[in-house]
Amino acid sequence: MNKFHAAWAVTSRSLAGVVGGYAVLLALRFALRPLLDAGEAARSVVLLGFLIYPTCILASFGLRSAGRAWGVVACLCGGLAAVGLLAGGQP
C-alpha cells in the first residue's frame, strides 16, 4: 500500500465517520419528527447523538474498508429515512 492510498483510506474513513454521523442524526430526526413534536424530536436526537455519533466514528475505523464504512452509513440513513416516510413524514 503506497502512502497516497493509505492517506486516502484514512481521509475517507474520517469523512464517513464525521459526515456520516451527522447524516445519520439528521435521518433520525426525520424519522422521529412525525412521531413526536418538533421540540421532543430535537431533544431526543441530541441525547441519542451522544451515543450514535461516536459509534459512527468508531465503526468507520473498525470496519474492514472505507467502502464498507460508507455502505453502513448509507444503509443507516436510508433505513431511517424510510421509517420517517412510512411514519408519515414529508421530505
From TrEMBL:
Species annotation: Bordetella trematum
Name assigned to this protein: Iron uptake protein
Superkingdom of this protein's organism: Bacteria
Transmembrane domains' residue ranges: 6-32, 44-63, 69-88
Keywords: Membrane, Transmembrane, Transmembrane helix
